[in-house]
Amino acid sequence: xxxxxxxxxxxxxxxxxxxxxxxxxxxxxxxxxxxxxxxxxxxxxxxxxxxxxxxxxxxxxxxxxxxxxxxxxxxxxxxxxxxxxxxxxxxxxxxxxxxxxxxxxxxxxxxxxxxxxxxxxxxxxxxxxxxxxxxxxxxxxxxxxxxxxxxxxxxxxxxxxxxxxxxxxxxxxxxxxxxxxxxxxxxxxxxxxxxxxxxxxxxxxxxxxxxxxxxxxxxxxxxxxxxxxxxxxxxxxxxxxxxxxxxxxxxxxxxxxxxxxxxxxxxxxxxxxxxxxxxxxxxxxxxxxxxxxxxxxxxxxxxxxxxxxxxxxxxxxxxxxxxxxxxxxxxxxxxxxxxxxxxxxxxxxxxxxxxxxxxxxxxxxxxxxxxxxxxxxxxxxxxxxxxxxxxxxxxxxxxxxxxxxxxxxxxxxxxxxxxxxxxxxxxxxxxxxxxxxxxxxxxxxxxxxxxxxxxxxxxxxxxxxxxxxxxxxxxxxxxxxxxxxxxxxxxxxxxxxxxxxxxxxxxxxxxxxxxxxxxxxxxxxxxxxxxxxxxxxxxxxxxxxxxxxxxxxxxxxxxxxxxxxxxxxxxxxxxxxxxxxxxxxxxxxxxxxxxxxxxxxxxxxxxxxxxxxxxxxxxxxxxxxxxxxxxxxxxxxxxxxxxxxxxxxxxxxxxxxxxxxxxxxxxxxxxxxxxxxxxxxxxxxxxxxxxxxxxxxxxxxxxxxxxxxxxxxxxxxxxxxxxxxxxxxxxxxxxxxxxxxxxxxxxxx
Amino acid sequence: xxxxxxxxxxxxxxxxxxxxxxxxxxxxxxxxxxxxxxxxxxxxxxxxxxxxxxxxxxxxxxxxxxxxxxxxxxxxxxxxxxxxxxxxxxxxxxxxxxxxxxxxxxxxxxxxxxxxxxxxxxxxxxxxxxxxxxxxxxxxxxxxxxxxxxxxxxxxxxxxxxxxxxxxxxxxxxxxxxxxxxxxxxxxxxxxxxxxxxxxxxxxxxxxxxxxxxxxxxxxxxxxxxxxxxxxxxxxxxxxxxxxxxxxxxxxxxxxxxxxxxxxxxxxxxxxxxxxxxxxxxxxxxxxxxxxxxxxxxxxxxxxxxxxxxxxxxxxxxxxxxxxxxxxxxxxx
Lengths: 749, 333
What we know:
By secondary structure, chain A is an alpha+beta fold. Helices cover 25% and strands 24% of the residues of chain A. By secondary structure, chain B is an alpha+beta fold.
């Protein structure tokens, strides 16, 4: 697949047999047999159940909370309100600890969004706590109809996020222009595992079983907010039933559970309900984006402008950075991205798979499709001719960028050359076909990471890091890495993660965990091997009088450098000879994500090609086929990697066609707060998906050249779907999701 | 959820006696029968249903499907949706029913849900399901939140100023087209109610959804003997491909004789406050040629009286397309 200019990338990489192998998940059997314990699966003697009481208004002041009836109910141990919950501290903005809802629960009497916690019942059973929580009556004053309007205008003057040239002037003089507003609705994360906390307090220390995508950050935040030293707080997430970003940073329920555990000296379990998931643990904000493109008649972009507005909560300002990929995606001398907030009486927003770039690319890539039509140019060709040489927003080279190959390979795999661009012109057995495509990009970066690797006398190897597997395959990927680096079979590798008492590992977000762990694990492995060689030199008669630097370690064997590995000794024999239980190496790698002046622009790229079918007789639209070509560096495990892309593509179809949280204008409640009414993709909607990995290692990012793959697959997908919808129906949907009511006016028959 | 007592009925008369003490068999009933529980338990958890007593009828002998001597099909009220859908006689003679059942819910729910229970499935109106919001069906006189709220999924036929809630069942639509008869055992003995008379329009009393009285137990559903030469079909349109309530659906039973339509029964789902039988559309087709133009004209008749709300005007068009297509499918034109 490589061409002459790309082959240097390939040869620079190590071509290791286990890295790049489609290994099945080492945790798979534990999950399908029910042995894997998720956070809410933990039970402890004497455990009590906590159920929060949620505000039924979105804006007002609590006058009083009547707990008398609830307190008298069977099994009720305690009811907490602002009066008796105790003190929670805040997280300083200057700290690295991340939280999207900064106001601690029950801090004051103001209600700022529907569902906000106003009290909490603790009882002997979940059922008793639930029943009593229903009987807690809050009385409010100054209740106002909330502002939950989806149409947005900036609260303050928009900020310029990136700018070059004079985009207004260039747009005004451009031969061909497009100028449209695109909107994306609020979306709610619906991982099948509910958020949960099981909190234990031993009089001095907390142990918290949490549903967290970032246990180290969770520890840092909880320690600050609970007012205890970090050493006295341990966070455990052995398995996560997915998070999609909603479980990145802590949410108020975790504090409530911990506070009750400390005060009552009993283990506390708190499981957030599905309905609460629509208010109390974040969502993807809605966005409204004006995109203006100007091009010459040759299709070369002369101006690109993206002005976006998002809603935010009354107190927080979590940015949905829709312009994340805009500055470097295409070559253009004139560009500006601006951003603005519009505050609403809606709960705080947070990251959702591909935050920023995913709604952002929906708008920019839709505009590119509209520009291609205005130019009467093929949309693939339009992207190809606007390929930049360097990252023009930062004037630095790309570490590894193969977007052009994604486009051409995708077009070839999909059969794009057979496309007739005329609307409604392609048919198959009575249905109309629509073909659309879009390019995509996502961050390739590393977070700080440390790891430990122990080579054990029993022939096993242990790798440990305070990170977590959110269902993406981190357990398996770590086992593959260590298997490769130490030279043992994967079943001899014990992977220990999900515990904040381990060496601090990366969060699982931004598609960074794999890339971040590689250098730390590699260094830890090297250090462990060095110690092994020293031990062999010092204590193993087989290597008497041979310096450690004359020894090598290959495929699990210590041997002389001038001899082959099979003449050496297995490491367990070396350790036995030295009377060592193990040698341990530690690795530490500083992240790149906060580099102010990076030398390279590192991103993943991809291209999606989508086929929809349109049956005008019954106004039925379905996605039939997707080809996604992904440039995400070296793929450690193509099987779990493909699974990530397929899942992301499927979620992208949901974004394009189904997902939308609706808030009632009267009380601010999410009207569709259940799995029947919040429409997501089902198996029956999932199309035939063909995933192609280009597999060019990005060795400037780490030594294995692997980037993350959790998010790239959803970026751009919705734009490819709406482009296909337009091709089939002639209807350009600029407000997601596409509804049947948008398409009923189609003239295509 | 409110505390309640639970008992298991081993004989039909015990179940009836237990329920007869309630003041109503409609919204607010103090006694509820539970079969599959797929609606009742859900609504109890939401505090929408607050029975003081739940009578488990799963052990009553009502799980048989039986062809009667006169050709009718007698379906026990406890026959599970999945069993009914896969019953060979149903698949052969009442395809519309099998298709409707399989278009509903998920496999897991269909394995639990019963025939009698599905007849009494409650609306999915979000405001009916939220005990904090006004709802005339749940709390008579409190007002309708849906008319000025989220009503995309709600009804356009048979509505009133008091309620626009949709009957959500797929099975009921097929039963309406099949002219099913509901067999009810009550304190006064057995009676048979044609399905169209079984369901009530909301009018000023949307809390009353059926003719059931305290103590009434649905024991069976009777289907008329299959019409000779008839074909039937259920078409359901929704946003996603599975596990979603209908935006619009159509059940049709259809036969021709010498090139003219000799028998046609039409019911619509997703658009009515009850399973929506359209006799006018049937009359428009009876004796006429089975052409796409005639089907479209009949569909227009079926939706003639539609009264859309702020978010669901599209259903008028969509339901017509649905019915036209369903008719075209059975007529094979």
